[in-house]
Amino acid sequence: MNKRSITVIPGDGIGPSIVEAALTILDHAGCNFHYDYADAGLMALEKHGELLPQSTLDLIAKNKIALKGPLTTPIGGGFTSINVSLRKHFNLYANLRPVISFEGTQSRFENIDIITIRENTEGMYSGAGQTRAEDNNSAEAMSIITREGAERITEFAYQVARSESRKKVTIVHKANILKSTSGLFLEVAREVALRYPEIETNEMIVDAVCMNLVMYPERFDIIVTTNLFGDIISDLCAGLIGGLGMAPGANIGKEVAIFEAVHGSAPDIAGQNIANPCSVILASIQMLEHLGMQDKAQQIRNAIRKTIAEGKTVTRDLGGTATTTEFTQAIVANL
């Protein structure tokens, strides 16, 4: 049987060790992948003189699927975000950020199960039209929302709701103030919602969403919104389940999909073998689901759930003393 090739970007800081943990688990689950390694971030800058080499882009384009550790973009000096560059280059318009409660994590809530679906290429976050006055007393940026962009992300959200038998989609906006951009997004989202009469649609202003997520997270199922709001909301949701260490992310386009840890590269603990690898492992579960390998995905998720609930061999952030390697081996043992 031919092995499916996946592009693997180990990343910076703790990236290589947590990505290795995820690959170990995929192998033990019998996923039968071939890994093509590629560089990006500071490691690529040192080796190739650029943050995102063409060879890496070519390998992602060839395999169509990539698993990525956290990357460091140097601050200032004209460096643009590598993640934003990847999303633009491959037109990865949908950002999928699920959060699910795991018994045994350090969180205030139980039974959280929310997916934030964020438009990934437009809006305030895209960096369009950024200028600063010569006297340094004012700055500008541009937010562009298109009908096409709003329609495809909302359509994507309702398709996810339908395929996963979810009951409700909340459209998040600020159309009361941002009447042009957020107003267009809301108008188009309403049109799309009419195509899915079996799914309950709710509309909510972004500030009310933040308050309700903290007080009544059970009110939410799928959230769909624009780029900047989605970026903020998805991190808030991660806080509901114990932090970014338990939150994966997927960037999905028509041709290519990139699955990633959403936290930073944590250079302060790099090389110490103490990082929680769950974000990348959960991202690999998203990857399996995208590839139609639901059985393997569920098998790995159950092993993580059992390992954390037992609480015997877990990393520091989960209340234990285990190393990354020990935690990974405990998950393997529970597969």
From TrEMBL:
Q: What terms describe the molecular function in GO for this protein?
A: isocitrate dehydrogenase (NAD+) activity
Quote the PROSITE patterns the UniProt record gives.
Answer: IDH_IMDH (PS00470)
Q: Which residues form the signal peptide?
A: none
Record has Oxidoreductase as a keyword = yes
InterPro entries in UniProt: IsoCit/isopropylmalate_DH_CS (IPR019818), IsoPropMal-DH-like_dom (IPR024084)
In short, the EC number is 1.1.1.41
**UniProt family annotation:** Belongs to the isocitrate and isopropylmalate dehydrogenases family.
PANTHER family, per this entry?
DECARBOXYLATING DEHYDROGENASES-ISOCITRATE, ISOPROPYLMALATE, TARTRATE (PTHR11835), ISOCITRATE DEHYDROGENASE [NAD] SUBUNIT ALPHA, MITOCHONDRIAL (PTHR11835:SF34)
Record's protein name: Isocitrate dehydrogenase
